[in-house]
Design brief:
Order of helices and strands of chain A: HEEEEEEEEEEEEHE
Oligomer: heterodimer
Strand content of chain A: over 45%
Number of helices of chain B: 5
Strand content of chain B: 25-35%
Largest sheet of chain B: 7 strands, mixed
Structural class of chain A: mainly beta
Structural class of chain B: mainly beta
Distance between the termini of chain A: 36 Å
Shape of chain B: globular
Strand order of the largest sheet of chain A: 1-2-3-4-5-6-7-8-10-11-12-13
Low-confidence stretches of chain B: 1-26, 374-399
Distance between the termini of chain B: 39 Å
Largest interface: A-B, 36 and 49 residues
Mean pLDDT of chain A: 96
Mean pLDDT of chain B: 90
Helix content of chain B: under 10%
Number of helices of chain A: 2
Largest sheet of chain A: 12 strands, antiparallel, barrel
Shape of chain A: globular
Number of strands of chain B: 31
Chain lengths: 223, 585
C-alpha cells in the first residue's frame, strides 16, 4: 500500500516533463557570404524547478563559426508568469571567448509578450547584459507574424571581443511562420542589425559594416 | 421492461450492413452495437458473480488508432446490470503489463472496494485477480472506469445499470445506454506533456487578426484588455476536436450508432459522460427530453431541450417519439471543436440528419468571477428566480486585478500555480452552463433539479468548508487551494455523520467537474428539502457551487476534478471520514 500511496502522489502533480524548442534555425543569404544563425532552449523537470539549457550561435557557411554559446542552469518559477534562471555560459568559437555566470529572468509579460533579460559576469569580471522580446501575432490559426527585438549592453569596453560600453547592438526581426503542425513551422523574414558606439567603431576598424539587413528563412520546431 | 421487438439475427446482420467501423480484435458489446434494440440486447454482465478481464487491443475509430485498454476485449466495456439489494462479487483480472484498477463510479461501497490505488487499496498487479465484494444499496445509471495510469482515457470504461427493488419511478417501454467518450491517437501522457509545454497546444480556435478584421469575436479594446491580463477567452477546453474523435457508444458520427424504437414508446436514454477531457452539450433537435435522473438519483421530471453533461455525470431522460422518423442524438463538445451524431430510428439503416457545429463560445467577465449582476448586493445570495442573464459585455478592465491575493482565505497557498483569483465569485448553480447562455431554447441548469424524495437528513450543516479550484493555464498547473496532491496536503477530514456545507470556489476560467467518492452530496440550489443528490458537480468558471454533505461513509476517499489531465496534474485530495468524533445522529 505504501508503494501505491507514493505512486498516486507522484502521478498527481509530480511527474517530470521536458521540452526542446528550436526557436530559430535559419539561413541568411547575402552578397558576400551566406550566413547561418540558431537559437534553441530546453528544459526538463517539474512545475517549479527545472534544469535548463540554451544555445545560440552564428557564422558564415564555409568559414568558422563566429559565435557558439551554450548555457546550462537551473530554472525556477517565481510567479505565475516568470522564471528566474541561474547557471553558466560557455562560448566555444575559435578566438577570444569567455566563461560566464548567468542570471536571467524570462517569462510572459502582459499582452502575451515573450520577454527575457540575461546578465552575464565573465571570469575576467566583465559585466554584460542581453534582453530579448518577441510577440506571436496570429493572422490565422496557422499563419503567425513574429516581431522580435534583441538588445546587447556592456558595462565596460572589451576590445578583445569588439564590445564597446553601453548599448552596443540592436537586432530587430520580423518573421512570418506557417505552422504545418503546432510543432513544425517554416518561416521567412527579415533581420536588421546595428552595432552602436564603441562596438560600431570596433566593427569599422575590422572592415565590417556596423549595420545591415538580411532576408532570413528557416524553421522553428519543438518537441 | 419490454423485450426486444426484433429477433437477434436481424439485429446482427443490420449491424454488419452498417459496418463503417473498424474494430481490430474486438467486437462491440451487445448494448453498444449499432442497430441494438436496447440496453438489454446481447450479453450483459449480471448475477452475483461477474468476471472482468482487463486487456489491451489496437482499435481504430474515426481514423484514429491507439492501443485501447479494454474490459472483456471491448471499448466501451460490457454493460453491468444489477438489481438493488443484491450481493455481487466482481472479479477483476489484470491481463496488462502494468497495474490496473476499476472504480465503480457513483456506487456506494465499502472504502476498500472503491478501487482507487493508493487510497482504497494497493491496485491490481499484472496477472492478479482482485475480488470486489459488496451489496448493491441503490438503483440508477452509473459507470465504471480505471483509476490507474490514465487507462480511462484509453478506453477502460463501461456502463452500470441498477434496476430498482421496487417500482420504477420513471417507467419506460424501452431503454438505451448513451455513453459519450473522447478518443485520440495521442497517448494521454503525451497530451499532458504537450499541455505542460504549451498551454494552448490543442486550441485551434483562438482569436486571430484575420478574425478581428472580419469583425468576429472580441473587439480591439476587449482583446487588449484580455491580452493585458494574459487571458484567452477561447480557452474553453484543453484537449479538443483537433485530436479527438467524439464517440457515442464507441461509434463516431460516420459509424452512426443506431438505437431502435417503436413510435409511441417511452424511450429511456441513459446518458453517461465517460470522456477523459470533454464536457458535452446534448440535444435531440426538435424533440424535448424529460430528465428523470441525475447521477443515478431520481429527480422530479423536468422537461428541457438541451443539457450540458460534465465529465463523469449521468443523466437519464425519457423521450416519446411519435413519428417513424430517425432522430439525431447530438453530443457537441462545449468548445464546439467537434460533435458526434448518433441515431434513434424505427428501423436499421436509417441515418438521422447531421447538424452543423455551432459557433464556439467566448468566455466573458462572469467566467472570471467579475460579474456582479446575478448577486443580491445586500445579502450576497443568488436570486434563483431571476432570469438568467446573458454574459455581460466586458467594459473597461483598466482597474481590474485578476489576482487580488487579499481575497482568498489563508487556506489557499499562492504560488506560481495560481494565476487567477475570482474577485466576486457568484453562486452559478442557477446559471446556464458555458456556451449555452443565449441559445433560444430551454437549457437545463442545476437549479432545475429537485430530488424526487426528500433527503432524510434535514440537519443544518454544523460547519462550512471552502475549497478553491486553482490553476495556471499557461503552465498547465491544476490544484485545490493552490496545492497539488503530490505536495502531500493534509486530507480533508470529516467526523462520521457530520453534516457540512462545502463551497467550491472556481478561481479558474474553465468548468471543473468535481467528484467525491463514496458519497452523494446535495446541491444547495434553493430546492430546500429536495436538494438534488449528486456525486459530481460541474462548477462553472469564475463561480461558486455549494453542496451539503452528510459524511456517512467511514474511510479514505478520493476527491478530484474529473478532467483526467487536471487530476493527474494534482487537482486531487484525499477525504477522510473518521468515526472517532462525536456522532451527530
Amino acid at each position: 500500500m505504501a508503494e501505491a500511496r507514493s505512486m498516486l502522489r507522484h502521478e498527481s502533480g509530480a511527474m517530470s516533463n521536458r521540452m526542446v524548442m528550436i526557436d530559430r534555425l535559419e539561413w541568411r543569404p547575402g552578397p558576400q557570404a551566406n550566413r547561418y544563425d540558431w537559437e534553441a532552449e530546453g528544459w526538463t523537470g517539474g512545475d517549479t524547478d527545472r534544469l535548463a539549457f540554451k544555445t545560440k550561435g552564428e557564422g558564415a557557411f564555409g568559414g568558422k563559426a563566429e559565435k557558439i554559446e551554450l548555457q546550462a542552469g537551473w530554472l525556477h518559477a517565481i510567479d505565475p508568469w516568470f522564471d528566474v534562471r541561474a547557471g553558466i555560459r560557455q562560448d566555444f568559437q575559435a578566438g577570444p571567448h569567455r566563461t560566464q555566470a548567468v542570471v536571467a529572468v524570462e517569462g510572459l509579460a502582459p499582452y502575451w509578450l515573450d520577454v527575457e533579460a540575461e546578465l552575464f559576469l565573465s571570469q575576467k569580471g566583465e559585466l554584460t547584459a542581453r534582453t530579448e522580446a518577441s510577440y506571436d501575432q496570429r493572422l490565422t490559426q496557422s499563419l503567425i507574424l513574429q516581431p522580435r527585438a534583441e538588445l546587447n549592453i556592456s558595462a565596460q569596453d572589451v576590445p578583445e571581443l569588439g564590445l564597446g560600453s553601453g548599448l552596443n547592438s540592436v537586432e530587430l526581426g520580423l518573421r512570418l511562420r506557417y505552422e504545418i503542425t503546432r510543432r513544425l513551422g517554416p518561416y521567412v523574414g527579415v533581420s536588421w542589425e546595428r552595432k552602436l558606439g564603441g562596438s560600431a567603431r570596433y566593427a569599422r576598424a575590422d572592415d565590417e559594416k556596423p549595420q545591415g539587413a538580411r532576408f532570413v528563412t528557416g524553421i522553428r520546431l519543438w518537441f | 421492461m419490454q423485450s426486444a421487438r426484433l429477433d437477434r439475427r436481424s439485429v446482427i446482420t443490420g449491424a454488419a450492413r452498417l459496418g463503417a467501423l473498424t474494430v481490430l480484435g474486438g467486437a462491440m458489446p451487445g448494448w453498444a452495437r449499432a442497430g441494438t434494440s436496447g440496453a438489454g440486447a446481447g450479453s450483459v454482465l449480471s448475477g452475483e458473480s461477474i468476471r472482468i478481464d482487463i486487456g489491451h487491443v489496437p482499435i481504430t475509430v474515426g481514423g484514429r488508432s491507439m492501443h485501447a485498454v479494454t474490459a472483456n476485449g471491448t471499448m466501451p466495456g460490457p454493460l453491468i446490470r444489477l438489481k438493488e439489494g443484491q450481493k455481487v462479487r466482481l472479479s477483476v483480472a489484470n491481463g496488462l503489463a502494468e497495474d490496473t484498477s476499476i472504480h465503480w463510479h457513483g456506487l456506494i461501497v465499502p472504502f476498500q472496494y472503491d478501487g482507487v490505488p493508493g487510497i482504497s487499496f494497493p491496485g491490481i498487479k499484472p496477472g492478479e485477480v482482485f475480488d470486489y465484494d459488496f451489496t448493491i444499496r441503490q438503483a440508477g445509471t452509473y459507470w465504471y472506469h480505471s483509476h490507474s495510469n490514465m487507462q480511462e482515457a484509453m478506453g477502460l470504461f463501461g456502463p452500470i445499470v441498477i434496476d430498482p427493488a421496487g417500482a420504477e419511478p420513471a417507467p419506460y417501454d424501452r431503454e438505451h445506454v448513451i455513453l459519450l467518450s473522447d478518443w485520440s491517437s495521442i497517448h494521454p501522457h503525451v497530451q499532458l506533456q504537450r499541455l505542460k509545454q504549451m498551454g494552448g497546444y490543442f486550441n485551434r480556435q483562438k482569436q486571430t487578426l484575420g478574425g478581428l478584421l472580419a469583425g468576429k469575436d472580441q473587439d480591439l479594446s476587449e482583446r487588449l484588455a484580455w491580452g493585458k491580463m494574459r487571458m484567452d477567452p477561447t480557452d474553453i477546453s484543453d484537449v479538443t476536436g483537433s485530436t479527438y474523435s467524439y464517440l457515442v457508444n464507441g461509434h463516431d458520427t460516420q459509424a452512426n450508432w443506431t438505437g431502435l424504437f417503436v413510435p409511441g414508446e417511452r424511450v429511456r436514454l441513459r446518458f453517461i459522460n465517460a470522456s477523459s477531457m470533454t464536457n458535452f452539450n446534448v440535444r435531440l433537435p426538435a424533440l424535448p427530453m424529460t430528465i428523470v435522473q441525475a447521477d443515478g438519483q431520481d429527480v422530479e421530471p423536468v422537461e428541457t431541450d438541451e443539457f450540458q453533461i460534465g465529465i463523469a455525470e449521468t443523466y437519464d431522460v425519457i423521450i416519446r417519439p411519435e413519428k417513424a422518423e430517425a432522430i439525431a442524438i447530438i453530443a457537441e463538445a462545449i468548445d464546439r471543436s467537434g460533435l458526434c451524431r448518433a441515431t434513434l430510428a424505427p428501423r436499421i439503416g436509417m441515418v438521422a440528419p447531421m447538424v452543423a457545429v455551432r459557433e464556439r463560445p467566448l468566455l466573458a467577465m462572469k467566467d472570471m468571477g467579475m460579474d456582479m449582476s446575478g448577486m443580491d448586493a445586500a445579502s450576497g445570495t443568488l436570486d434563483l428566480s431571476a432570469p438568467v442573464t446573458a454574459p455581460a459585455k466586458a467594459g473597461s478592465h483598466g482597474a481590474m486585478n485578476m489576482r487580488d491575493t487579499s481575497l482568498v482565505p489563508a487556506s489557499v497557498r499562492l504560488g506560481p500555480g495560481v494565476a487567477t483569483i475570482s474577485a466576486a465569485p457568484a453562486d452559478r448553480l442557477g446559471d446556464r452552463p458555458t456556451g449555452l447562455e443565449t441559445v433560444g431554447h430551454r437549457v437545463l441548469t442545476y437549479a432545475d433539479l429537485k430530488a424526487l424524495v426528500p433527503h432524510p437528513d434535514r440537519r443544518t450543516p454544523e460547519r462550512e468548508l471552502e475549497v478553491h479550484l486553482t490553476a495556471n493555464m499557461e503552465r498547465y498547473m491544476w490544484s485545490f487551494d493552490g496545492v497539488k496532491l503530490s505536495e502531500n496536503p493534509e486530507p480533508l477530514a470529516f467526523r462520521h455523520n457530520e453534516r457540512v456545507r462545502v463551497t467550491l470556489v472556481n478561481d479558474t476560467m474553465m468548468p471543473h467537474p468535481i467528484h467525491l467518492h463514496g458519497h452523494f452530496f446535495e446541491l444547495v440550489n434553493g430546492a430546500e428539502d429536495r436538494q438534488p443528490r449528486k456525486h459530481t458537480v460541474n462548477v462553472l468558471p469564475g463561480g461558486k457551487a455549494s453542496f451539503d454533505l452528510t459524511a456517512d461513509a467511514v474511510g479514505d476517499w478520493a476527491f478530484h476534478c474529473h478532467m483526467l489531465l487536471h487530476m493527474h496534474a494534482g487537482m486531487f485530495r484525499v477525504v477522510t471520514v473518521r468515526a472517532d468524533g462525536p456522532s451527530a445522529t
